[in-house]
Specification:
two-stranded parallel sheet; 8 strands; 47% helix; globular
Length: 321
């Protein structure tokens, strides 16, 4: 089995580093002309948006590359169903239980709740509050609210109500780092519903059970220096890796979309192109949703022509290697 895994890894390395289109090395005007010559609409959209970024001398995050930037760069296109249709992934329902309360009763926002679930899961796995909430601390630093953040960190103990409320308020600092100070709302004024606290506890407990089955975590918040970022995608980091899988956590009430599977394909390619040996064992991508307690996973097979085509298309048209 180890030999087969090594062979698979070597074959992916060969495929990823061969026949690079290198679209991003072209002048923007030439790339725009090339876009018009493409036979598929998704190809034209991908190259058009790449040309716009090159013209502006600006790179974007992984999610901005997918969604675009309003008024600046259009979203990219995907083939019908997506580069990796969700229906092709193996779906495993770990349990048919649901959170104790309906999501409509949750406060604060869904994004803040998702972040709190993510960070609280990390904290309960590692007991390292500083590392688990380091993005929150970066936001607090920009806001000059480190003393408040440190007080909240001191209230983290596990999954009691006080810990969950502290985690939510810490997560509220994230926006100052990720999106700028204008989007920040004072965390001391955050309205936190008892239903949200109960649902977060439920989701973190499911997340911890998930890692007992699919873990252990090899890399927390994987990044892709020195060689994984491109002229187009300048930054972005994943959620977790295990021995063979790049994982993303979602707490949405809905199943994953083709945008989510593309995000994971991008992370996987960037990891394999990064030059970091720790990622050479990654042969799968996966999504876990603790709200639905469901796993979606896909094994990328270098012997499957469809997988080779989808990886090369994302590498060339989306990431711009």
């Amino acid at each position: 089995m180890a030999a087969n895994h090594s062979t698979t890894s070597d074959e992916w390395n060969r495929i990823l580093h061969s026949s690079l289109a290198d679209f991003a090395s072209l002048p923007p005007q030439k790339l725009q002309r090339l876009a018009q010559e493409q036979s598929q609409e998704w190809q034209r959209k991908c190259l058009d948006s790449m040309a716009a970024l090159l013209k502006a001398h600006s790179g974007v995050s992984v999610t901005q590359r997918i969604k675009g930037i309003k008024g600046t760069v259009n979203p990219i296109g995907q083939p019908y169903g997506g580069f990796l249709p969700v229906k092709t992934m193996e779906k495993v329902i770990l349990s048919d239980q649901k959170p104790p309360f309906d999501h409509t009763q949750e406060q604060p926002s869904a994004g803040t709740i998702g972040t709190a679930v993510d960070y609280l899961t990390r904290f309960n796995l590692t007991q390292d509050a500083q590392a688990s909430f380091h993005i929150s601390l970066l936001g607090a630093n920009r806001l000059e609210k480190i003393p408040m953040a440190e007080d909240l960190l001191a209230n983290l103990h596990g999954l009691d109500d006080t810990s969950i409320k502290a985690a939510l308020r810490l997560a509220g600092f994230d926006v100052a780092y990720r999106a700028g100070l204008a989007g920040y709302r004072p965390v001391e004024d955050m309205v936190i519903s008892t239903e949200a606290v109960a649902n977060i506890r439920w989701m973190v407990e499911r997340s911890l059970s998930f890692f007992e089955k699919y873990g252990p975590i090899v890399c927390d918040e994987p990044t892709f220096s020195p060689d994984g970022y491109t002229r187009i995608v300048w930054y972005g980091d994943g959620d977790f890796t295990t021995a063979t899988t790049m994982w993303d956590f979602k707490t949405s009430i809905k199943p994953p979309t083709s945008a989510h599977t593309l995000q994971l394909l991008m992370y996987w390619i960037m990891a394999r192109m990064s030059g970091q040996e720790q990622y050479n064992t990654l042969t799968s991508i996966g999504i876990y949703n603790p709200r639905m307690d469901t796993v979606w996973q896909y094994h990328l097979d270098p012997a499957n022509p469809e997988d080779v085509e989808r990886i090369r298309n994302v590498r060339d048209y989306v990431l711009g290697y």
